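Posting for a labmate who doesn't have an account.
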Amino acid sequence: MAKKSKKQQFGGTPATVALTAAGVDFTVHAYDHDPSHPSYGEEAAQAMGVSPDRVFKTLVADVDGSLVVGVVPVAGSLDLKALAAAVGGKRATMADPTLAERTTGYVRGGISPLGQRKKLPTVLDDSAQAHATICVSAGRRGLEVELAPEDLAKLTEAVLAPIGKG
């Protein structure tokens, strides 16, 4: 668990650079990514020994023609209707993966809610508030950042809403 010299140890990602620039307290967790694992988020939780309720995945959806980020626990799934409602929309579908990658600047399985190429509206599942810290992708497969959910919400200007299910 690295605390200092994150850029030197992990090469820095736009997410860790944004956190450092904001002066937010965070911890970087690195693990060996297994390309054959069926779930990026579950793999991260297992590799770090953290409850899947505290590891959050970043999903990009299309809400009425605009891209929106939903951040939900890996233990569940994204409620697309709830996501649309949280941003005042009517209909949501999962975004095309290529468009999500191009817009955020990250690859699937490594999309971070932080440091995106184009800052997208973000909704954080309100279950995050039950934890002192949560983990989200640091912008690369096999790299997570642990931070307070309040800091994540503030930096991403996220709306907190019940968008997770399961």
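Reply:
Got it, the structure tokens are right above this. Residues 1-9 have pLDDT under 50 and may be disordered.
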